Amino acid sequence: MTGPAQQGTPFGPADPYRFCPADGTRLEEPRPSGGVSCPSCGRSWYRNSSPAVGAVVVEDGKALVTVRAREPEKGRVDLPGGFLEVGEHPVDGIVREVREELGVEIELTGAPILPATHTYGPDGAYVLPIGFRARIVEGEPDPTDDVAGIRWLTSSEVDTTDFAWEHDRKMVREALEEV
Ligand SMILES: [Zn+2]
């Protein structure tokens, strides 16, 4: 599917901003650090990865994964989670996402899981994934519209499951190894 973002002037995920996002002033070449300053308002602009959070809910040695109800990657497996909102703490973000997608309250267990940065979408935008091992403290998983269903994976099923994204597989594997 081609949308407006794919037409016209190419704009790669690591290309510097050409115009100030605040006031539209044409920007010069970026400094070696990657930042570029607006000659009009003085603000500095950087291209960064977008932070995204994912939860691996573990219960009785099994990890909860979700089956995607929508494109992209409809029917394949991923983890509950999503992109952080502006200014949102990662822990608040994952608690919110899991509540929205599964209708349960979680509590985080253990240290964050940090797989490599990856790309997402037709433009290959960079995403910084942050994984959290978690357990359900209230409610039964009741998938909402974005989720077709849930599955509980044992560690022996992780390699053969049809994950939409490899970083989710890595997070599940790592979370189950901690058990
Ligand atoms: Zn400006």
UniProtKB/TrEMBL annotation:
Residues 48-177 form the Nudix hydrolase domain. Keywords: Hydrolase. Residues 1-39 are annotated as: Disordered. The keyword Hydrolase applies. InterPro entries: NUDIX_hydrolase-like_dom_sf, NUDIX_hydrolase_CS, NUDIX_hydrolase_dom. It comes from the Bacteria. One of its GO terms (molecular function) is hydrolase activity. The keyword Hydrolase applies. This is Nudix hydrolase domain-containing protein. It comes from uncultured Rubrobacteraceae bacterium.
